[in-house]
Design goal:
Oligomer: heterodimer
Helix content of chain B: 25-40%
Radius of gyration of chain B: 20 Å
Distance between the termini of chain A: 99 Å
Radius of gyration of chain A: 31 Å
Largest sheet of chain A: none
Largest interface: A-B, 83 and 95 residues
Order of helices and strands of chain A: HHHHH
Number of helices of chain B: 12
Structural class of chain A: mainly alpha
Number of strands of chain A: 0
Order of helices and strands of chain B: EEEHEEEHEEEHHEHEHEHEHHEHEHEHE
CATH superfamily of the largest domain in chain B: Medium-chain alcohol dehydrogenases, catalytic domain
Strand content of chain A: under 5%
Shape of chain B: globular
CATH architecture of the largest domain in chain B: Alpha-Beta Complex
Number of strands of chain B: 17
Strand content of chain B: 15-25%
Number of domains of chain B: 2
Shape of chain A: extended
């Protein structure tokens, strides 16, 4: 009986380069370290490269004793997000207290970025920064639907909040009138 | 200089930034001539990687010309054209000495679980990346490799990440001649992993994704058997069991990572609520569709917190999980040979060339998979 899968099978020997890197030793027991020396068993003993001077604030993991010899100096911690990041780095990489505040700090940092733009006299061009020109060109329907859904949700939220406000206002007024009635 | 500037989830722009400076005697400054947007950049773009700070420049796949070197740089000179591995490695720590160049202990003070990576958040060292006209390249004696004479720059730029990551995915899968290899994800890395699986002697290569144009591409490029998990089946694991005589695949590669589609619960908890470090759908399917005693190879990128995966099945099936950031520097000599001999043809993956100035459109195009985009390359004003 013919195997129904046969029609899908590709003859491996017809594929250029087939088997040229085959390695019978590469089974799961094969070490992933190609030059296994076990040098790390001697501890943190290698001759370290020259230390890069820290000319901006660098937060480092408390799972290591020092800064690495090189590091990036992009966007040092600043403002409220910086305070949150400094707090987060008091905890090890094993803790949610490390990672979740960092995610929170990232979101705070986005607001800080917008405020910074405004402080510099520019308002972010959200349409351009979100790449909507590409969506407009290649996926106009999707973009329109997405914006319509966003407008509907945002509009609905505003309406709901304002109607809730009206109800509260009416309740307050009702209470006031009732009070006035009893006072008579 | 012009550089990409992250402003928040799904918001990027190009701004004028100061030129990078030599900060360490082994630094070099490289004028970028080609740069790419990588699938893993989308995790940053979507705001899924902790400590991604506003103002950072992304980009870990780039090549360029050395324009300045620090006082201790002896192996490069001004004018050299170099391809720069995405991982920053000192070459001296105990991990680098053993070929684990993706796990260097002297390039990222912010986290011990990952080495330094260009433009990949402060969790990966806080370095600005190569989606800019110029970039600082640390450990210039060790990392950057001079591009061989005659190599096409489009091939060279894909040797910085996509090709080595795909190749290492296949290598870590421990493929033995005749093995059935399943690759989840038909993005650039998945395509390359499927291609490289044959080099290790695979007998059958199956790729699953839900984007038809990408499946069509990998079907011809790798080549591979391809299936759309949204339209060709109800349950990918059950489907793969049937395809493999009810035993499961010998090796399964997760080339998707945190942005995986296909499971509502994983999508909501991993991509929307961020209560786990990305959607672990692909690795979940990998564990469940590999045979007993099989190997799962993970190159898809996940965040540093936790993911929901069926670890009990790993135990009960006796699986081996192998995973790492690609050790680019270790693999380069062999891969350069493969490119020069035409065994691997990286530049065929490139579908779009986008000016750096239009980078926001590039991210949107790649992220939303518009216009049949597979791999976008950024062109720089200084090298047009």
């Amino acid at each position: 009986m013919p195997n129904p899968m046969d029609k899908y099978l590709i003859d491996p020997k017809s594929v250029p380069g087939w088997g040229i890197d085959a390695d019978p030793d590469n089974d799961p027991t094969y070490p992933m370290k190609p030059n296994r020396t076990d040098v790390e068993q001697q501890g943190y003993t290698w001759e370290r490269p020259t230390q890069q001077p820290a000319d901006v604030e660098i937060l480092h993991s408390n799972e290591r004793p020092n800064l690495t010899a090189v590091f990036g100096t992009a966007s040092p911690p600043m403002g409220l997000s910086g305070m949150i990041r400094r707090w987060a780095f008091r905890w090890s990489e094993n803790e949610y207290n490390h990672w979740l505040p960092l995610i929170l700090a990232d979101r705070v940092n986005v607001v800080e970025g917008v405020l910074e733009d405004i402080a510099h006299g520019t308002f972010p061009n959200i349409w351009k920064e979100k790449g909507y020109n590409a969506s407009w060109k290649h996926d106009r329907t999707g973009l329109v639907l997405r914006l319509a859904a966003f407008t509907a949700v945002a509009g609905g939220l505003v309406l709901w909040l304002s109607s809730d406000g009206d109800k509260k206002k009416a309740k307050r007024q009702q209470k006031h009138y009732r009070g006035a009635y009893y006072e008579q | 200089m012009l550089a990409m500037d992250y402003r928040g989830p799904k918001r990027v722009r190009v701004t004028q930034k100061p030129m990078p400076e030599i900060k360490h005697p082994e630094d070099a400054i490289v004028r970028v001539t080609r740069s790419c947007i990588c699938g893993s950049d989308l995790h940053l773009y979507n705001g899924n990687v902790p400590d991604t700070r506003v103002g950072t420049t992304f980009g870990h796949e780039f090549i360029g010309e050395v324009v300045e070197v620090g006082s201790e740089v002896t192996k490069l000179k001004v004018g050299d054209m170099v391809l720069v591995p995405f991982n920053i490695a000192c070459g001296r720590c105990s991990f680098c000495q053993q070929g684990l160049f993706g796990n260097c202990h002297e390039s990222n003070p912010m986290a011990t679980a990952v080495g330094g990576i260009y433009g990949y958040s402060h969790t990966a060292g806080g370095f600005h990346g190569g989606q800019a006209e110029y970039v600082r390249v640390p450990y210039a004696n060790f990392g950057p490799t001079v591009i061989p004479e005659g190599m096409d720059p489009d091939d060279a730029v894909l040797l910085t990440d996509v090709v080595p990551t795909g190749y290492q995915a296949a290598e870590m899968a421990g493929i033995q001649p005749g093995d059935t290899v399943v690759v989840f994800g038909a993005g650039p890395v998945g395509i390359m992993a499927a291609r490289c699986a044959w080099l290790f002697g695979a007998g059958r290569v199956i790729v699953l994704d839900h984007i038809d144009y990408r499946l069509e591409f990998v079907k011809n490029y790798a080549p591979a058997e391809v299936y759309n998990f949204k339209t060709d089946m109800q349950d990918p694991v059950l489907f793969l069991k049937k395809q493999t005589d009810w035993l499961g695949a010998d090796c399964v590669i997760d080339a998707v990572g945190a942005e995986a589609a296909g499971d509502v619960m994983q999508t909501i908890t991993g991509r929307k609520l961020l209560v786990q470090a990305g959607s672990a759908t692909a690795v979940h399917w990998a564990i469940n569709s590999v045979k007993k005693g099989g190997i799962v190879s993970i190159v898809g990128v996940y965040g540093p917190t936790d993911n929901l995966v069926p670890i009990g099945n790993v135990l009960n099936k006796g699986l081996t999980i192998r995973a790492n950031q690609a050790s680019v520097k270790r693999l380069l000599p062999r891969l350069i040979e493969h490119v020069q001999n035409g065994v691997i043809r990286p530049k065929e993956l490139i579908t779009h060339r986008i000016p750096l100035e239009d980078i926001a459109d590039g991210y949107r195009l790649f992220s939303d998979k518009l216009d049949n985009c597979i791999k976008p390359v950024l062109t720089m004003p200084t090298s047009r």
